[in-house]
Amino acid sequence: MFCDKILQQISKIVEEENYPFYVYDLDNLKKIVEEFSSTKSVKLWYAQKANPLSSILRTMHSLNVPIDCASLGEVEQALRNGYSASQIISTGPSKSKAYLKTLVERGVRNFVLESQNQAYWLNEVAKDEVDVLLRIQKSNWKLSGQNVIGGNQLSQFGLEVFDWKKVNFRELKNLNILGFHIFQWGNILNRDELFSIWDEIFIDSKLWAQELGLTNFPVIDLGGGLGIPYSTHDKPLVISEILEYLESKRIENQLEEIWLELGRFLVGPVGYYANRIVDIKEVQGVRMLILEGGINHMIRGTLAKQYFPAMDLRSDSQKSPYRVYGPLCTSLDYLGEHHLSSQIEIGDWLVFTQCGAYGFSESMPLFLCHDLPAEFIFSEGNMEILRTRQKIDSLMR
Predict the structure, then answer these.
(1) Is 60 exceeded by the pLDDT of residue 380?
(2) 162-191, pLDDT tens digit by residue?
(3) Are strands 374-379 and 382-387 parallel, antiparallel or unpaired?
(4) What does each C-alpha distance from 188 to 31, 74, 156, 197, 265 come to in angstroms?
(5) Checking phi first, is residue 36 left (phi over 0); if not, alpha (psi -120 to 50) or beta?
(6) Record: fold of 84-262
(7) Is the distance from CB of 326 to CB of 295 less than 8 angstroms?
(8) Which fold has domain 4-22+269-394?
(9) Alpha helices in the chain (DSSP H)
(10) Residue partners of 219: CB distance under 8 A and separation at least 6
């Protein structure tokens, strides 16, 4: 999880910085993407919601990875950073007729349809044929339980096949149905569990096609859901095993391509968040660290109950458990329990890892009017600052 080169650079930065900051390792990002792009049978899209930073988008574009956008703001961010409209796929459950018209006018040609209305609206506003996937909400998974993307519970994503059957697609001449999009499970780290979910999708997709009268569908979009380890006890997924499995399923199901919209899996491992200790205390026998930044900079762990791993920069090996909190006036501002140096002191820094996805961009920076953290990138062996610490008054107009 930890890169020695990055930690050396962070150690240098903390000698001058006195406020939390993020670092993104673009060199490592390129390695991850290049390994995943080694086969032409799997089409990789970058799910921008994981991290919309311009430097990351430009890196993805340079590696020929098209982009998944779920809002007009994301579309514009992609276009600003080198993407053409033809390299964008429009996703997300909330698409009004006016929004679809705007995307068509911008030149977007790939859409995931989430409702009957979206199908009718897109057909109406499209000047000619556009490519679409029908998002399926499946309700009878073998795997039970809830998930941040819905899991086996009712969610706002897509429709059941029964509802899609009510649409007469033969009359919607501007919609070219490529296949299905189905994605209801997030951060799956167990390979066998992930493959079992995908097995269900491949089996069911044939039945869905029959029910909808689709004689040929060249694409299945499996969305994302590939997990990364937030605990030292977890084993990471092996990319080569995933690609080998997907290629066998592509051939078996006579598909042209299998699409994946990955965010966390690509950018999560390349992000670091450095945070300074401002106080240490013990309450009811529990040792606590109070940090300069908290969920105002990094809320995902609290929302998903998957806390980002943390380490200190001390070299001693003896560790003790600490509960770690941020500066906000709410008990929600909790960053997990971590084993850190027994000699840790006020003024020391912690480094959180795996936070390149759903880190700062998903947080709540305006709460309590704390400043925004600086952001750095590590690229071609060099550290570069993207944004210095930003005073909150610039946003409080």
Answers:
(1) yes
(2) 999 999 999 999 999 999 999 877 889 999
(3) antiparallel
(4) 21, 25, 20, 10, 10
(5) alpha
(6) TIM Barrel (3.20.20)
(7) yes
(8) Lyase, Ornithine Decarboxylase; Chain A, domain 1 (2.40.37)
(9) 4-13, 26-36, 54-62, 72-80, 97-106, 116-125, 161-164, 191-212, 239-252, 264-267, 300-304
(10) 133, 178, 179, 255, 256, 257, 258, 259
